[in-house]
Amino acid sequence: MKQIKLDQHTALRAKSLGALGELLAIKSLVDNGFNNIRNLNDQKKNYPYADLYAEKGPEKYVISVKARNRHERNGRLNSRYNLGSDCEIKAKKAELQFNAKAAWLAISILDDFYSVYFGTLESLPVKTGIPIGETHFQKYECLVMEKQHGLDFRPYKNIYEEEVGEPQINPTLNSVGGFSRAGSCAGYFLVRVLWQ
User: Fold this and answer.
1) CA separation for the pair 158, 6 (Å, rounded)
2) Which of 3, 29, 37, 102 is most open to solvent, judged by the fewest CB atoms within 10 Å of its CB?
3) Contact yes or no for 33/56 (Cβ under 8 A)
4) Which secondary-structure segment (H or E) carries 15?
5) Counted domains in the chain
């Protein structure tokens, strides 16, 4: 098996996929009756464990968002979305700070469609990752099932080149995959598409 060389383009693609995931996450939370939603990364870059804060009824949540391509580059199901080896410690700090329960959103994207699954960290048998697969889906709350996202997903697909090359920058967007080099998303376009 050949080792994948991660370069600037791969890193920008992953960061862009994460930003897209946070937008899809916020939309799915709104559509499923969550309120008082806040993006914690607006308060502090790379907030420990949680990306979002949200409430539903009396419950308060600090939520880690994990957006992934449904399949790995070899075509197999991406069967585990990593939360990090120290996520339990970071989640506990976020729970205490916000008086909320640690939760997660797993966003599985395949071409023009996405699905969103919700669960709490305490529900996971191993706290360092979210297992993904048919046997696991029945244990999770499905917030979105195979919904069209309306975006050109090609820049986010798991396609790696054998050699390290320069990322292809779109001169009209000054970006890789529709997101600026500074890391902020082309929010107007995405929000307009998602909320139509």
Assistant:
1) 12
2) 3
3) yes
4) helix 8-31
5) 1
Bridge partners of residue 107, in order along the sequence: 67, 116
Reported as a single tens digit per residue, the pLDDT across 133-179 is 888 888 899 999 999 887 766 666 766 444 444 444 333 333 333 33
pLDDT in the model for residue 178: 34
Task: Scan for tokens 């994990």, then name that residue.
Answer: 66
Contacts of residue 46, defined as CB under 8 A and 6 or more positions apart, other chains included, come to: none
pLDDT of residue 18: 72
Check residue 46 and report its DSSP letter: T
DSSP E strand stretches across 40-98 = 52-56, 59-69, 80-82
The pLDDT value recorded for residue 177 is: 35
CATH of the domain at 56: 3.40.1350.10
- 115 pLDDT band (50/70/90 cuts)? very high
